[in-house]
Amino acid sequence: MKGDRDVLCRLSPGTGMLVRLAVALMGTLLGACAPMIHAPSPAAVQVPAMAKTVAMMQGAHPLHPGAWPEQDWWQGLQVAQIDGLLHHALTHSPQIMAAQSELDWAAAMSRLHGAALGPQINGAARITPLQFSGNGPFGALGLGNKLYDSGALGLGFRQALDFWGKRQDLWKAALGGERTANARLADTRRLLAGAIVRRYLDWCMASRQYALTESLLTLAEKRAGLAKTRQRLGIDSQIPLARQRERVASLRAHAEHWAGLADDARAELAELTDTDPDSLPMHPQYPQGDILPALPLHLRLDLLAHRPDVQAARDAALARMADTRAARAEFYPDISFSALLDLDSASVATLLNPASFAYSLGPAIHLPFFTSGALHARLHAAEAQQSEAVAIYEQTVQRAVRQVLTALSAWTSETRQWSAQRQGERSVAQQETLVTRRRALGIDDESAVLALQEAAVQKRMQEDLAHYESLRAWAELETALGGGYGHP
User: Fold this and answer.
1) Poorest-confidence range of 48-62, 64-78, 394-408?
2) CA-CA 20 to 30 A from 391: which of 315, 384, 408, 426?
3) 433 and 396 together in one domain
4) Please, where are the H alpha helices in 117-165?
5) CB-based contact 304:47 (threshold 8 Å)
6) Mapping DSSP to helix (H, G, I), strand (E, B) and coil, where does residue 35 land?
7) Same domain, 272 and 306
């Protein structure tokens, strides 16, 4: 940065050695005045130790080690509907388009700063009719009251000599901004994909619970019919019938509740995927099979760095560090080399005459003698921004660790509950088969069979809830792991 009283010196080839030594000494003295950088470096950020915590959470049911999660981890659900929705959302969502625009701007800025490192060549041409006043200074020389069709052709060359690395650091900062924008785009995809998968699973869960509640309602209505018949025949009092009618009313309310949740999830899914609600199917495609996420044996910083938000924070901190180095380089002389070839004539007719030729070439040095503290203020501002970026990077790493541990804890807990529910469901199914046989033999009546069928449906509802909670926790864990951004 040029100071308030920068000195511009053009040194011709005949300049004496004394001037050269004076300039060199002046640059050395100015460089000695450049303060040291005290802002922290992102290399000092360390990931919290968590290997023992992960092992304790896994307990007797450790996760299967595998490759680092892919960015399209949702394909593990084997649901074509989700694949189609995510493909549309990740290419047409306004969030994605906004992040892509930010990346395009950052890429253009990095090219702009990169261009400053190369030579600059400019051309100019002009034809300017002019007439001097007869009473002015040129008129006194006999040049007044005459029309001149003056013209000029020029070719200029300039090359900045980046001895202190200022322009190089500015370019590195711009490249860091581009990498940051690219990582933020990937993080937008990560968060959007996680939100879509979780909302789709909510839609599946609510739809399944609604369908099972309807089945339960049908069984309850049959039991209410049997209770009414038994009351009419004088076998039972009105109390069993009143209880069954109350249960029917309660189940109808529950069915409406699940139907409303399914409609809400479907509407929010349409918003997340930037899809018209009428374009979505009325019913979801349910995932099949057991889904187990893959987790590396050891969670280290080099693995968590593949989360795009962690990578974005790191790249931003590195970019701010390059900005700080560039601000410190402002204390040193700014040196460049320039050349000018020019044809200039008062008449276009003689523009190409050899006598119209002029040139200049040589280095230029700008020395910031006095800036009223502007250079120090600029450096301190850059150091503050670097310190802030490093703090954000460290905070992002800690948040990533917390999210992974929280998601891992939820996944292991929900998976164990699902396993327990599945065992209970098999037990109820066996009882239902036994009662059906007893009824066929005339041992039990239809009311007992309906009661066991209701218990089986209720158990299936609990198992389905545990199943989808487990799948939702799996989606949270995959989202927390980051999808392997930048992993080779």
Assistant:
1) 48-62
2) 408
3) yes
4) 137-140
5) yes
6) coil
7) yes
Q: Which two tokens stand for residue 212?
A: 């099972």
pTM: 0.79
359 near 157, Cβ under 8 Å? no
Contacting residues for 256 by C-beta, under 8 A, at least 6 apart = none
Q: How many CB atoms lie within 10 A of CB 347?
A: 12
Query: pLDDT tens digits, residue range 160-191?
Result: 888 888 889 999 999 999 999 999 999 999 99
Two tokens, residue 24: 């060199």
Residue 383 lies in a domain: no
* Residue 459 in domain: yes
- Please tell me whether residues 185 and 309 are part of one structural domain: yes
Number of neighbours of residue 456 by Cβ within 10 angstroms? 22
Percent of the chain clearing pLDDT 70 (strictly above): 81
CATH number at 424 reads 1.20.1600.10
Q: Note the residue count of the chain.
A: 488
Six-digit token pair at 456? 């089986």
Question: How far is CA 445 from each of CA 26, 216, 237, 248, rounded to the nearest angstrom?
Answer: 108, 19, 18, 21
Tell me if 389 sits within 8 A of 316, measured CB to CB. yes
Is 207 among the domain residues? Answer: no
Q: Are residue 185 and residue 277 in the same domain, yes or no?
A: yes
**In-domain check, residue 226:** no
Rounded to 10 degrees, the C-alpha dihedral 455/456/459/461 comes to: -110
Q: Which helix (H) or strand (E) holds 340?
A: strand 334-345
Query: CA 434 from chain center: how many Å?
Result: 56
